Request: fold
Amino acid sequence: MMKPRENLVRLKLFQVNEKRRRLAQLDAMIAEFDRMAGELDAQITSEETKAGITDLNHFAYPTFAKAARLRRDNLRTSQAELVQQRENAQSELAEAEAELAKAEALENRGGKGRDSGSNRAMTG
Reply:
């Protein structure tokens, strides 16, 4: 049978691993959005070069470049939101790791405390 403190440690370990997975997901999404925005930048530059127009307000500015700019800007906005979520996830991970350390210390202390207590009962 598993002891309650072992269950607590397993729960805290699960929570830490879950927070680490979430952090890795956010990192991957941020990197992917950055890559996609970079590709859009290249497409925008290419379209502007073909058209010979870089002024967004020019009547003949390429429609594709306008759409790509909008998509890129939306990606950058989403990326900034993900960076904020990542910061929150990082602090949640730090909290979960601290709770895990406490639970492990409690389990270790609890195990030693019972052993030394039973030895005292035999000798005293």
Observations:
- The helical segments are 4-51, 63-123.
- Residues 67 and 85 are 27 Å apart (CA to CA).
